[in-house]
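Pilot study result, target chain (111 residues):
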Amino acid sequence: MKRILTSAALSLTLLLTMAAPAAFASQTAMTKAKPAQKMSPHAEALKKCNDDYKAAAKKAGDDYQSAVKDAATKKGKDRSDAMKAASKTKSDAMAAARKAKADCVKAAPKK
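Predicted structure:
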């Protein structure tokens, strides 16, 4: 009798553990099926400005990292000059990205 009850309990537990993820997946699929709201022209313009800024900042960071990696292979004054140039290039690129973002936000349609 004990063996029957144990095997029934194990079978029920196994069945529930296999059915639970499917139940949660169907439940979350229902909550995610909301239609996307249309963004206002102002919000779309700001999103584009922010995305462009993020892309420019990422590119500046990636370029800086590659320049630092290249400078690491050099010695002495060459390395120092390469590091200074990389730092200046990054700061110039970030300043240009900030200016472009500010101009983009100013040009965005009003609410």
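One observation from the pilot: The chain has a mean pLDDT of 86. A full batch analysis is planned for the follow-on phase.
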